[in-house]
Amino acid sequence: MTMATLKTDPARLERFLTEIAAFGATKNGGVTRLALSDEDRDARNQLKAWFEAAGCETRIDRMGNMFFVRPGKNRALPPVMTGSHCDSQPQGGRFDGILGIIGGLEAVCALNDAGVTLERDLIVVDWTNEEGSRFTPGTTGSGVFAGKLDREAMYALTDREGLTFGGELERIGYKGMEDFDPRPLHANFEYHIEQGPVLERQGKTIGVPKGIVCLRWYDVEITGVPNHAGPTPMNERKDAVYAFARMASDIFEIGLASDNVVATVGEVHPSPNSRNVIAGNLHFTIDVRGWDEGETDRVCADIEKAVRTHAEVTGTTVDIRRTWEVERAPFHPQLVSMIRETAGELGLPALDMVSGASHDTVYINQFAPSAMIFVPSIGGRSHAEVEETSWADCAAGADVLLNCIIKTCNDPEGVEYA
């Protein structure tokens, strides 16, 4: 078997993925493994044990990012990085994020099986708090690593119970004592499920995204007047839920009418949230994404205008704040081509596309040549317990990842993806 056709072990990959899914397993086959929870800690412990058994060194930085390093022949050369995240959404799926880490682990094991030592170090990373469901914003660990988010500000983030990111990082025992900085990186790959329906509909096994769409997050606070549901006439109400309903409808319609921009209302928290009380307050979130930055910002401006207009019409007041903004991330064309060509060498049908979901690579891409590998999501479902990817597709994506790692890790000194 030549290096170009080296394959992973599908049965071992399935076993790793099945065993790691036990940490935070839900009764309907999904995973709730929120960042810095006990479940996250236990999964981290298992990853550390597996990687160290496979001969890797473990480094943990002050954000809790875990770096598993497989030494190469020339450790002075810039290393190759791959990986993703271990945390999940509440009642999320068992492939989102973790597939990229386990794919890296399986690549390490396949290289060990073949007795191969690569020229460069290979680093498999577990980035802290990609999802942002417990502590907002997401992609926290990679954002601090990239120098785009302030570490102390991230330590101060709180969850709904008032617990801080920094405090929980210490509690689970994953606050490293010093930073680990392997830069410059020679190349960076992230292997991930598509989280959409395109690959399945097109009958393709490997997705080759040219980049990640830009993203805008909003937090919106509507203030009305709480009152009794019975005696208060309809024409005298300042109902925060009614104002929200009008806003949410327009947000959907504005996204629907746009040129490939998506707009989503995610969290909705009315107060006092009682069946016989007119809501006096409501907090909700908006998520806007698109490949074209200008069109995305036009959609955002229309949404902001609509929210303010509906507040005025309903007699409520509104505070709309943009809480997170990430530029689109075009991937490195040479690495994108490498993924496409590697899929072809392995006889796997591939499709050029974009990533509608944000990933840690959105930050790593800003300072290192980067690209992603996608495999199909059955039914296009993700961030839900029904999330599913076939074991055969998981292994196919891992094979592409492994061979891209081999190619880049064996680049001689002086080769750069500029």
Outline of the structure:
This protein has two domains: 293 residues, 3-Layer(aba) Sandwich (Aminopeptidase); 113 residues, Alpha-Beta Plaits (2-Layer Sandwich). The protein has twelve helices and 15 strands. The protein has a six-stranded mixed sheet.
Q: Would you write up a description of this structure?
A:
With 418 residues, the protein is α/β, with parallel strands linked by helices. The protein has two domains: 3-213 and 328-409, Zn peptidases (Aminopeptidase), CATH 3.40.630.10; 214-326, Alpha-Beta Plaits (2-Layer Sandwich). The chain contains twelve helices and 15 strands. It has helices spanning 10-20, 38-53, 98-114, 140-145, 151-155, 165-171, 198-202, 240-256, 293-313, 333-345, 361-364, 391-409, and strands at 57-60, 66-70, 80-85, 122-127, 187-193, 206-212, 214-223, 227-228, 261-271, 277-278, 281-290, 317-326, 329-330, 350-355, 370-375. The strands form four sheets. A six-stranded mixed sheet has the order 1-2-4-3-5-15. It has a four-stranded antiparallel sheet with strand order 9-11-7-12, with helices on one face. Helix 3 (98-114) links the parallel strand 3 (80-85) and strand 4. Helix 3 packs across helix 12 and helix 10 (333-345) packs across helix 12 (391-409). The longest helix has 21 residues, at 293-313. The chain is globular, with a radius of gyration of 23 Å. Its EC number is 3.-.-.-. GO terms for molecular function: hydrolase activity, acting on carbon-nitrogen (but not peptide) bonds, in linear amidines; metal ion binding. InterPro entries: Amidase_Cbmase (IPR010158), Bact_exopeptidase_dim_dom (IPR036264), Peptidase_M20 (IPR002933), Peptidase_M20_dimer (IPR011650). Keywords: Hydrolase, Metal-binding, Zinc.
